[in-house]
Amino acid sequence: MKRKLTILALFDAISPTSLDQDLSAELKTEDWKTEANVLKALQELGHEVQFLALFDDMDLLRQKLQSYQPDVIFNLADQFKNNRAFDQNIVSVLEMQDVPFTGCSSIGLTLCKQKGISKKILGYHRIRVPEFAVTPRGKRLTRPKRLQFPVVIKPLKEEASLGISQASFVESDEAYHERIQFLHEKYQSDVIAEEYIEGRELYVSLMGNRRLEVFPIRELVFQEVPPDEPKLATYKAKWDEDYRTRWGLRNQFAEGLDPALEGEIVDLCKRIYRLLVLDGYARIDLRLTPKGEICFIEANPNPILAADEDFALSAGKAGVSYPALMDRILRLGMSAVRD
Length: 339
Ligand SMILES: Nc1ncnc2c1ncn2[C@@H]1O[C@H](COP(=O)(O)OP(=O)(O)O)[C@@H](O)[C@H]1O
Ligand SMILES: [Mg+2]
Description:
Elements: E1 6-12, H1 33-44, E2 48-54, H2 59-67, E3 72-75, H3 87-95, H4 106-113, H5 115-124, E4 132-135, E5 151-155, E6 169-170, H6 173-187, E7 191-195, E8 200-207, E9 213-214, E10 218-222, H7 235-239, H8 241-246, E11 249-253, H9 259-275, E12 281-288, E13 294-301, H10 310-317, H11 322-335
Parallel strand pairs: 1-2, 1-3
Antiparallel strand pairs: 4-7, 5-6, 5-7, 8-9, 8-10, 8-12, 10-11, 12-13
Helix pairs in contact: 1-11, 3-4
């Protein structure tokens, strides 16, 4: 029988919180599904769990750790003051406490957050990444010749496909500058423009610190999108159920991959995980071109842990039940070397 743990589950909130905040109403909502799933699993495992939600006051964490000394923090806080760019800063603070925590270290979060930096590192190691160009806020830079149309325009540091729509796919310089300016203004963010990579969209879930485990590959299929139309996991494609139904968008296990190719994908993803200094758990997004080339799109350290999301579904297919997955994440957090 494994030792029962005392756990502090750390959440983020969208408005100021207190130490003894009652979150029972929130935890019943769709927005808090991940938190509710994780809490339930930790309790089922027999661990003692308390929680704290952070909005803009890291001192709450210091106070909480004074009154409650958990064996481990289960970190689900990935924004601060409603800004997701701060996930790495929260983890940096966790690294300075003497309490282990789950998920990725600040270095991996930082390297993956900026969509240009991860590509530079992987490109240096001859891993196929899209050509790209970054345009900082307020600048209007000419598209470099090596960046050929069609191009996908994205906020440099967002997640969950925020700021990504069909209009992100551009085929002229006019549309290129228009979309960049739109993102500069609407999202107040720097922008990355990437070569559009045609192909199947694959999601590979991995976990581990040193020894890595890769779970069965998932795919987003675009069933009803005509072959000559751009296929993008836009914001609507991820989060709008009516839209998903209309265009036949489905997340499912990738079918019909040649076992040799699958082996290549697994090895590549392990390499990427290590090159981007990831630990804990992550999901790597790839495109598989019609010629069978594998191209990196993005790495997501600390992917969404809701029971019905790709990461947990992949683990489940490998025979790791949801509570068992949460337990593994805890143990990895407790054995991670953070300095
Ligand atoms: N270079 C690209 N080529 C083809 N599709 C892309 C490219 N970049 C992004 N996409 C599409 O847009 C989706 C979201 O892009 P991504 O960089 O993963 O942003 P986010 O961090 O918001 O998930 C991808 O899953 C993919 O479908
Ligand atoms: Mg993504």
